[in-house]
Amino acid sequence: MLTLLIISLIMSFLHKCKADETPVGPVTFLEYRKSGMRHMIDYVFQQTAEGTYLLSRKEGWRDENVPQITVPASIAEELRNIAEEEHMRRYKGSYSPIGRVLDGWMWHLEIKFATGERVCSGGDNAYPDGEKGLNRLADYLENVWNTYKDAPPVSEKAASAQDNVVYLKYNRSGTVAFPLNLYIFQQDKDGSYWLINGSNCHRSEARKAKVPATLHKAILEIIEKDGIKSYQSYYEPEFQVLDGEMWSLEIKFKEGESLYSSGSNAGPSGDGLQNLSALFKRTWKEVEAKAEPYPLEN
Question: Which fold has domain 23-154?
């Protein structure tokens, strides 16, 4: 009997670890609450039926006003990453201390993923992993709140810039013959979106692939968040550089507005260009298998 019990416990543990490694989708709902006798803070993140994402923050037991803000869709992915990296799907249903505690802290965590999986856990003066994962989650939610609480709602931005970008070209080149990065995003008249990749190859070897509308939304978020519309027309270093890299960014909007910026061994502050490049690289990996030849003119 003892042998069977040990085997059962081992199998249960292995199954739990395997389940934790099963990929899950982005977070569609998350609530984290920590409370004591004199203080309470409660965060609720959720995806609405319309597809927008909301975050509310309630502080204090007497706080009847629960402000709510709209946040980017990327937050759902980041919350999923935190849950995975901190192994929150392995959390037990409840945690309690060995001895009795008459005062202290209680906490509650509920997470729902797009793939249907759910986590529900809580505790009374006891925590999983020494509270490291919960502290990381709380810090991230507080940072998101402080970042977007005074910004115009993302839903309003999306509505005012709906189908805004019809063409975007990002080109970065160095001393080699081929462009280091050459990505072109464009919208056809029928509303479909395409990504053209001419990086690290001759222009005649460029390819294109159809991409989902989520790429367009992500581009709009980067343009807004990184202040790309405020870029100067040209950037140059303080001292002359005989070698190095050059870049250019061209954007055309549906309303007729356009933007062109470029630089030689210098660029705008912030991570706008890097974020665009990383977004295009990630997207291309997802659609490359369906790409078709699309030679570019010299």
Answer: Mago nashi protein (3.30.1560)
